[in-house]
Specification:
heterodimer, A: about 375 residues, mainly alpha, ABC transporter involved in vitamin B12 uptake, BtuC, 2 domains, 16 helices, 2 strands, about 75% helix, about 0% strand, globular, B: about 500 residues, alpha/beta, Rossmann fold, 3 domains, six-stranded mixed β-sheet, 20 strands, about 35% helix
Chain lengths: ~375, ~500
């Protein structure tokens, strides 16, 4: 029974992002009944749903890293877009240095080098936060401000173009595969994260450190190392997101690549029911949150909201969401539900869940 | 003359999902009376208090204040009608001044008249005999004075009823006396005081009447003078006292040649304890005695490397080892239950299961997580063994009572099968029943061969459990007592005189 209950608890945390997602999909469905229609063009699935999955790839990956950083460091990394811009600039330079003979191995090596760059950037942020106790937002402000200049310099002050066919396939589709490559890469990444969570104590360590670093330390966990580790993971997430973004775009635009994506990533974490002040976390919540944001963006476009007004609409929507998700409204809802239960059971003095009380009595 | 009844609570009921916290409880408070509310953890004391001060709404029953039925919807309602509460944890702002703390959020106008505020504060501090100046920063006051200021703040608004929830739990004897003087002063002014504490001696020292609750039910109201201590305890626990006094101490065989389980030479840490030597044998229970701040906690923290170790040599089973961080100590088979359960012990939002398996899990390593099934089994085993009362293993530990939280932390360390377990104040702030259980457990573990260090502020508890006491004063070991010498009188004397006892005897 307890297992069932815990599953229910986890579901209730996902209730908000899921219901928002459903509402948005409904709106879209009302707008046009063919919303879910998926068509096959040249052996590849296209349609609204594939577009959403395609468009949200980078955000999903970044929101996973942001979840871990928020949980352990009790703060956010605002330099993720810039980290992605730098690591992808390095990737592009490596690939371009191969000249005409770009093979899958060139791309793979370039990807690994950009991941290493991501690790370095993550280590930089992580060192500031964990060992020098700088607040995450202040620490990552440094890269946020300077990151795009660094990327611009790596680029050689131009926007280099990735013209090789493999990059094109990574950014769009591989012939013979019906699903767009970024969607597959995102799925693989999520699966990898799931494996890591399953085979390590990452969750326990991160949650313990985020909730009570002092107690965690007295149980043999080194909070500094754990926080550092989450920034390393964030660095890799940035590199992967940068890799996908630059291959999608086909050129490295150091000014606009992944611009302001940290805002959406933070929002995705919050939408997923996670506390931005550390502690217990739900990665599935953040992933759903990320897709929800993508759906929201596309819904506004589809409703033909004036592009200049989109941000304002989005803001209004987020205000409504955050108010609904706030503890005040939640408590109120809980009270209303409790009262409804009391009225339902017909007894004002003996409300709510007598089962566990009864079983407790039995034990006595 | 029968004192006038100021508060009557009748037939109060309150349920939480799954728990009936209060079942038809009556409570009466008279003017100018100090009334102790007693009961084990989970008896319903806090719930009753929180209904009285408007934090919770009652399900049934009525509250009559000075002859008028009242209904509180919020703590502000209760405050307006003259019910002030001071909680165990001081809810003041340490960075503000004393006067600011007394008047902040008190409906004063936007423009503060600093002069008048400080003047009024000074008057009040003076009249209550609180040794603090109005412009002093609160953080510079001792905990006891801070507590008194919290009381002054509560009393300020024409207070008729003052609720003190465990006000003395972080005070030493001297500070407690100062607080009691303040309570008597308020009593003389006709304030009815509800006093909640775990210290039975203090109840007998200061209270006029006692109301006992057990499992959410009223057991009775008694005149303190007419209720013997033993009877009070048995009423709280709901069982005869024979098994409380039946604790038998285990005396380890004292073979001087055997290699000590743990040995430290000139150990010292960044927390500022003087270099000290320490040994413990297999199956021994020893303790560090001393006043608050004497360095007893700092000493055991140095053993576990909870503070940065700055010097000394450590041997485990005769082998020289380096213990630089808690994990090193854990790997050597040492466990440490910290003094501050809330800040250093529990990970409050994590489940009971995760809290129990934490230390074992960390020792196994980052890449070797226990399977869910294993974790569940381990946790279940100790929940049963220690009789931890929790709705489920997935319940966040913060929603358990203090005693059950402490048992879960104990379970955490027992699960690692330590060779040497350090318990710093394992019984602080928990109910009598659990206290006795923990004492028994300690002796049983020692009989099974575990070595333990047991620290407590209550000397009689340490005398009951420890076979050797190391006495500390001013961050230094001043002496050691064992066997026949182990009496309360000797411990006191040694603390007072600083090791002179040995010369005398």
């Amino acid at each position: 029974m307890s297992k069932l209950k815990s599953r229910f608890d986890r579901l209730s945390q996902l209730f908000l992002p899921l219901s928002v997602l459903v509402v948005l999909l409904m709106i879209n469905l009302i707008k046009g009944a063919d919303y879910f229609k998926i068509t096959m063009i040249n052996g590849v699935f296209y349609g609204n749903i594939p577009n959403i999955l395609f468009g949200a790839s980078e955000l999903v990956i970044l929101s996973i890293g942001m979840t871990l950083v928020s949980a352990a460091a009790r703060g956010q990394d605002i330099s993720i877009g810039e980290s992605g811009a730098i690591s992808s600039a390095i990737f592009v330079q490596y690939v371009l240095s191969a000249g005409e003979g770009v093979t899958i191995w060139t791309i793979l090596a370039g990807f690994l080098i950009s991941c290493a760059a991501g690790l370095v950037l993550g280590a930089f942020n992580g060192t500031l936060v964990s060992f020098f106790n700088v607040q995450p937002m202040v620490a990552t402000l440094i890269l946020f401000l300077g990151g795009r200049s660094i990327a611009f310099i790596i680029d050689g002050k131009v926007s280099p173009i990735l013209a090789n066919p493999i990059s094109n396939q990574i950014g769009t589709v591989i012939p013979g595969v019906p699903i767009q490559t970024p969607i597959i890469l995102t799925a693989v990444f999520i699966a990898l994260v799931a494996v890591v969570l399953k085979t390590t104590n990452l969750r326990l360590y991160v949650e313990a450190v985020g909730i009570n670093p002092s107690a965690a330390r007295l149980n043999g966990i080194n909070p500094k190392k754990v926080i550092f580790l989450t920034f390393l993971i964030m660095g890799v997430c940035s590199a992967v997101a940068g890799f996908i973004a630059v291959n999608k775009a086909g050129r490295h635009d150091s000014v606009n690549l992944l611009k302001f994506i940290m805002m959406d990533a933070i929002l995705a974490v919050a939408l997923g029911g996670n506390s931005l002040a550390g502690g217990k976390f739900s990665i599935s919540g953040s992933i759903i949150g990320a897709y929800t944001i993508e759906v929201l963006n596309r819904t506004l476009l589809r409703l033909e909201v004036n592009p200049e007004a989109i941000k304002a609409f989005k803001a209004v929507f987020i205000i409504i969401l955050m108010v609904i998700a706030s503890p005040v409204v939640r408590d109120f809802a809980r009270k209303v539900i409790d009262k409804a239960k009391v009225i339902g059971s017909g007894s004002p003095i003996r409300p709510a869940v007598p089962i566990s009380a009864r079983s407790a009595k039995k034990e006595e | 003359m029968q004192p006038e009844i100021i508060l009557k609570m009748e037939g109060i009921c309150k349920s939480f999902p799954g728990v009936r916290a209060l079942d038809n409880v009556d409570f009466t408070l008279r003017r100018g009376e100090i009334h102790a509310l007693m009961g084990e953890n989970g008896a319903g004391k806090s719930t009753l208090i929180k209904i009285l001060n408007g934090v919770y709404e009652k399900d049934a029953g009525r509250i009559v204040l000075e002859g008028r039925p009242v209904h509180f919807r919020s703590p502000q309602d209760a405050q307006k009608l003259g019910i002030g509460t001071v909680f165990q944890e001081i809810a003041l702002c340490p960075n503000l001044t004393v006067a600011e703390n007394m008047f902040i959020g008190r409906g004063w106008k936007a423009l503060v008249n600093w002069k008048e505020m400080n003047k009024r504060a000074a008057e009040m501090l003076n009249s209550l005999g609180i040794p603090a100046g109005p412009t002093q920063e609160l953080a510079n006051c001792s905990i006891a004075v801070q507590q008194m200021i919290a009381i002054a703040r509560a009393v300020d608004m024409d207070c008729k009823i003052l609720i003190l929830d465990e006000p003395t739990s972080s005070l030493d004897e001297d500070e407690t006396q100062k607080l009691f003087a303040l309570m008597r002063e308020l009593q003389a002014r006709g304030v009815g005081i509800i006093f909640i504490t775990h210290f039975i001696d203090q109840v007998y020292e200061i209270s006029d009447r006692i109301t006992v609750l057990r499992n959410g039910r009223l057991i009775g109201e008694y005149l303190t003078a007419e209720l013997p201590q033993i009877e009070l305890v048995s009423k709280m626990m709901g069982k005869a006292l024979s098994d409380v006094s039946a604790i038998k101490k285990h005396e380890p065989e004292r073979s001087e040649e055997s290699v000590p389980v743990f040995q430290a030479k000139a150990l010292t840490s960044a927390a500022g304890v003087r270099p000290f030597d320490f040994t413990i044998q297999r199956g021994e229970v020893n303790g560090f005695a001393g006043l608050l701040g004497s360095g007893r906690s700092e000493s055991v923290r140095a053993i576990f490397a909870a503070d940065r170790v700055t010097g000394g040599e450590v041997r485990v089973n005769g082998r020289r080892v380096k213990i630089r961080k808690p994990l090193d100590a854990m790997k050597q088979g040492i466990g440490y239950l910290p003094e501050d359960r809330k800040n250093d012990g529990i990970i409050d939002e994590l489940s009971v299961r995760d809290n129990i398996i934490l230390a074992l899990q960390v020792m196994k390593g980052f890449f070797r997580p226990l399977s869910r099934k294993q974790a569940e089994e381990f946790a279940n085993q100790y929940v049963k063994l220690l009789d931890i009362k929790t709705p489920s293993l997935d319940t966040p530990i913060k929603s358990l009572s203090g005693g059950n939280q402490q048992k879960a932390i104990l379970a955490r360390w027992l699960l690692t099968h330590p060779m040497y377990l350090i318990l710093d104040e394992p019984t602080r702030g928990i109910d009598v029943g659990t206290k006795v259980e923990i004492q028994k457990l300690v002796l049983k573990l020692a009989a099974d061969g575990m070595s333990l260090t047991f620290i407590s502020s209550e000397i009689d508890e340490m005398l009951r459990v420890c076979s050797r006491l190391i006495v500390m004063k001013d961050r230094e070991i001043v002496g050691e007592l064992r066997g026949e010498d182990l009496t309360e009188q000797n411990v006191m004397q040694m603390i007072a005189q600083g090791g002179e006892l040995r010369c005398q005897s």
